[in-house]
Amino acid sequence: MTADPVALARDLVRCPSVTPSEGGALKFLESTLKTAGFTVHRMTFREPLTEDVENLYARIGTAPPNLVFAGHTDVVPPGEESAWTHPPFSGESAKGELFGRGAVDMKGGIACMIAAALDHLAANGGKPKGSISFLITGDEEGIAVNGTPKLLKWAAEHGEKFDHCLLGEPSNVAALGDTIKIGRRGSLNGHLIVSGKQGHVAYPDRADNPIRGMIKLIDAIQSEPLDKGTAQFSPSHLEFVSIDVGNKTVNVIPGEARAQFNIRFNDNHTLDSLKKLIEKRARKAAGSKIKFTFKWQPSNAGVFVTKPGPFTKLVSDATRKATGRKPKLSTTGGTSDARFITHYCPVVEFGLVGQTMHQVDERVPLADLKALTAIYRDIIDRYFA
Ligand SMILES: [Zn+2]
């Protein structure tokens, strides 16, 4: 018996699981995995001021190594439903493509993982040589507080050990097999506040214009590159996105200036070392004259990288065999849940083609669902060979 990734993807798309709603998606996975012999845990995580979110952890086998497939069943809202060629939660297929919210991001990916695992088990007497697990959250597209971080903590507290993880986010750019993500840059937001002294423009000696100080500090902070890049990453980049004094008059020197910036950073830095570096540059330029403070937005978006090695090669080889493409090992793009998983085991991201994700008429070629299932199946076979 082989599992059908197209039917699995269709059934998942029909669950309206817009974050933080479970929409029946995890319930569907629970029954599918239980039937295949997995031990399934469902847990709801909560935290003050956030919505409760349901999550799932399933495992078959007790022996190491434990190969973990990770992903999320929640989806972004469909937007204007009438703009869709096929209703976003209908799971309709047309001209060889499955339409629907989550088709590529990432219910399609989850369907392929499940189909691949079930196929592997069916061909191996129902049991893996080690263990296969699924770590599925309903809180990836939201603020990601009651999702993967708490799920990983729960698993660790219950003695679960992970050896390698494959996160099925849509990693490919134009065609299945073109890109495996082995890392993501970190992201940090900061505010720079320069205080001066308000006063009349005609009497500048009685005032202290913070705009001068702000210009000097911004120049000092951004004039030198943060680094030259690393083996896996492009150079870190700092971008000021606003400078405000909120002044509506022409004859008042403002008392305070504020600027906001974002930094996308590579593995030369950590969140802490980066803050120290920026503050040091500002202190040096300010001397004793300019009064300033930084306010750093809390961030859980650290950098992650899984250096090329046997596991990335295994994923790469399986992809190349099925698609004929040699995947690029990339670290571009925004953040993903891999930034949490990396603290527990090496993780790489490989899934469908991301072109239509978060768009109206999100859709996936049925051929891609079948091909990705074959790749995942090959990865499992090689992993336990
Ligand atoms: Zn996603």
Ligands in the model, by name, code or SMILES, are: zinc ion
How large is the share of residues in beta strands?
15-25%
Strand order of the largest sheet: 1-2-6-3-7-18
- What is the averaged pLDDT score? 96
Helix content: 25-40%
Query: Which structural class is indicated by helix and strand composition?
Result: alpha+beta
Q: Count of DSSP helices?
A: 9
Describe this protein's structure:
- This protein is of the alpha+beta class and 385 residues long.
- Helices cover 30% and strands 24% of the residues.
- It has helices at residues 5-13, 25-35, 107-123, 148-157, 210-223, 271-286, 310-323, 338-341, 366-384; strands at residues 39-45, 53-60, 66-72, 93-94, 97-99, 131-137, 164-167, 179-181, 183-184, 186-195, 199-200, 237-244, 252-253, 256-265, 291-296, 304-305, 328-330, 347-349, 363-365.
- The strands form six sheets. It has a six-stranded mixed β-sheet, with helices on both faces.
- A hairpin with a 7-residue loop joins strand 1 and strand 2 (53-60).
- Helix 1 (5-13) runs antiparallel to helix 3.
- The longest helix is centred in the last third of the chain and has 19 residues, at 366-384.
- The two termini are 21 Å apart.
- The mean pLDDT is 96.
- Zinc ion is lined by residues 72, 105-106, 140, 169.
